[in-house]
Amino acid sequence: MGSVETLNASSHRVRCQRCVLSSQCFPASVSGRDLEALDRIVLRGPSLTKGSTLFRAGETPVSIFVIRSGALRTFARSASGAEQILGFHLAGEFVGLPALHEERYEVTAAALQVTAICELPLAELEAVSTKVPAMRRHLLRLLSRELQHNQRARLLLSVPRAEVRVAMFINHYRARFHGRGLSATRLRLPMSRRELANHLGLAVETVSRTLSNFRAQGFIEIHGKELEITKPERLAELTARGISFGR
Question: Where are the beta strands (DSSP E) in 29-143?
């Protein structure tokens, strides 16, 4: 799948009430007829393959999306064509939220692995949201949260010490897992070391060395794509230094 148009063309309706991620997509106050109204607009297309694009920077937004399984990266390109990864997005999270108020997608979203997507067409979502105020408030909260994530990413890049950047990333990632009701100590990282280094503004060798140092100090254990946090308090201390630096 290479574009939003492909997703739209092959989509079909899906019942949100049967989805285990429903509580993450919609506020608890949305139920009964209101949830049925949202059910009627949600589309599900074929899964994205690794590396394929959901939407591209500069395209006119037609939908926002929820990741049902898998993971995406969002990135922008410089004038020279260099890619800067701005964020990683996990199952149960919305993607493309700025489309609620922007005339163009500002970033490109691509799959880090095989990824299943639910689509909420903007026109239909707007119509339903006028009848379901709780959903409108929920979307505004999600948009505000995304702005906070973007601010955190800018802060992260301003921190000079590599170990603090990596610790801040792990702690933020850990908080997102915890917020989804998952383990806050065993994290699956869908991105490669190169992609993580790009996001952190560091060399791949620096990221690998920092993770190795964390492991040697007993802060973490690494098992393939899985990272286990064994001393969260030490990572929290490093993160606090980064937050203090940004003030």
Answer: 43-44, 53-55, 63-69, 71-77, 83-90, 94-95, 108-111, 116-121
